[in-house]
Amino acid sequence: MDLFALETFLAVAEERSFSRAAVRLHRTQPAVSQAISKLEGELGEALFDRAAREASLTDAGEVLREYAQKLLNLRVEARHALGELRSLHRGSLNLAANEYTCLYLLPVLDRFRRVHPRVKVSVQRSLASRIPDDVLLHSVEIGVLSFKPEDRALKSIVVYRDELAFVVNPRHPMAKTEEVSIRDLGGQHFVAHNVPSPQRDKVFEAFRRHRTNLRIDVELPSLEAVRRFVELGNGVALVPALTVERELKSGALTRVRVKELQMERKLRLVHRREANLSHAAIEFLRGVREYAEATGGSYCFLPERGD
Prior knowledge:
It contains ten helices and 13 strands. It is an alpha/beta fold and 307 residues long.
């Protein structure tokens, strides 16, 4: 099974057409068909349903597709690694984060870029639930998560301790109060992020446990939108403290302590346990540790126990 055959297979699967795949690969259609037939013969399985109008994958084809992508990603990874051996001052750092965890990356990436300005940095935006798979499939080298991954093939390092923050507009009646009870929130109009998360579930459970109604009047697709909507004087919100640091310092928002909602959320950097990390990734992790040692506070560098 050679990589060209797998590349041809993926092209047909993605284009859903032998002829379009041939154009994409700059080959003739008979050559593409022959490569697929040879691959099917080698595997002893039909990979495409040729009775369909488009080249749709069989069950065997669906299984092969995941492994083919892994192998081709590994080829790209190998080329990058060899390139770095030839030129140590070059390289790339590929990360995955979501809207929230990307905020953690900004100061550490700023430091990294000042020290290594020639390393290309790419942060892929991804749903938190997909980031472990992105790392395992070699799509990115390091991911940033707000939960501990279950897969033992991943190694994680706690790098930031965040808190849940109850925030209001400075003109809100509660803005003059340092601390409230969760029961005081029963009549409030909440603005919420509409993406499911373990933290969201914990908040719902806390309100249920204290027999308090959580009234969500507005749900928005991003934490940035939630923050700005509350700034405008619309309701109140529970958000990660990291996402409102600037607004709290400027006075655009006010944080009020809720004694029953003291929830810590740990941000983690994760990578494949058995991976040979690139020089850029190794330097990035070293920089993260040094930044945590110099900055302190919420920043830390704590490999998980057993890692």
